[in-house]
Amino acid sequence: TPAAAGLAALGASVRLLLELGTAAIAAHVGGYLDRLEPALTARGFVSLRAADPAARSGILSVAPPAGVDLLALQRELGARGVVVSTPDGLLRFAPHWPNSLAELPAVTAALDAALPLAQRSPR
C-alpha cells in the first residue's frame, strides 16, 4: 500500500519550504551561525567556517579546545537538548529554519555546562 500519510507530510513540508523560500532559509541559518560562531571561538573552539559568506554552507564545524573529549561533549550537549554531530574529530552544528535565535542563550549555557564534564583527565 502507498504511504499516504508520509506522502501527505512530504507535500506539506515541501509547500512550506517553497513558501519560506530558500534565500530566506539560508539567510536565517547564516544569521544563526553568525551569532553562534563567536560564542564558540570565545570558548576556545576553532572555526573552520569559510571567511567568504558566499562560500559558506548551513553547517558550522569547529575543532574542540585542547583537552576536550569530543564524544563526551556531544553526549553532554545531547543530554541538554543540543543536537550536534562529530564527524572527523569536529563538532558540527547544523541548524535549520525552525531553530530560533532565541535559543542561542540555551545553547551557550549547555556548552558552558558540558565543557567541564568533557575534559580529558590528565594522565
Describe, in plain words, how this protein is organized in 3D.
The protein has 123 residues and is mainly alpha-helical. 50% of the residues lie in helices and 7% in strands. It has four helices and three strands, in the order ααββαβα. The termini are far apart. The model has no long low-confidence stretch (mean pLDDT 94).
Number of helices, counting only DSSP H or I runs of 4 residues or more = 4
Quaternary arrangement of the chains shown? single chain
The unreliable regions are none
Main sheet properties? 3 strands, antiparallel
Percent helix range: 40-55%
H/E element sequence: HHEEHEH
**Roughly how many Å is the radius of gyration?**
17 Å
Strand content: 5-15%
Number of strands: 3
Mean pLDDT: 94
- What gap, in angstroms, lies between the N and C termini? 59 Å
Structural class: mainly alpha
**Strand line-up of the largest beta sheet:** 1-2-3
The 3D shape can be described as globular
